[in-house]
Specification:
Helix content is 17%, strand content 41%. It has 239 residues and is of the alpha+beta class.
Amino acid sequence: MTRLRYPVAVAALVALTVLFITNRRYVYSESLGLLPALTAAHIVDPRHAGATFRLEGRVISVRATRQGIVIIETHDPAEDLYVDVPVFPSLGCLPLKPVRGEAVRVTGNLGMYAGQPQIRPLSAPHVEVLDLPGDPVSAAAAAEQVGATLLIGPVVAVDAEFFESRAGLEHLRLTLADAGEPAGAAGPPVEGILFQGEQTDCEVDLLLSNDPFLVTAEVEMFQGAPSFNVRRAFPLDAW
């Protein structure tokens, strides 16, 4: 019996290695289309808790908490599923934060919170925007398209400061100008705002830097002048 101890140990080690490789392949094979798509049957079956799925749906809201968690609410019309996607700060910056109305693909583990199903992404890049916005326009050109939601840039923030609203919220007031334009060639800077609840820490760091970036914004009129209601900001290399 003593002589069987090592073969058994080796066999157990081999089995664990195979299990690890299989599980690793299962988790990271989404590019091959091998991960199962999340369905209502998966959610109600407790055996699937913690398993890895692929979720595709349309964003119905995005909000950022004071703790830095980005909560993306999605709806999958094929399954009529409403699923939250919490992106914790430990996962890093979202390459491209989704905005309302966009289609997304999320790869993550199934969980529940307060009775609501969640897909917890494996990493920030596992939150993918499927229908990317069109070509960017300059801030000067965007200012002439009041009522439109546009991809704008590259721009720089020539001024950015927080202010407290009457409701006690801290919004970020911006002044954006086209980047890389020769002196005198750029149009006048355009005022903008990024509301608390929509701003992530990564976006704030970018907006307070001197680096050029892109924004998705709704063009509105404020106090008689065009203004950008910024929905997201992201670095040039994310585009």
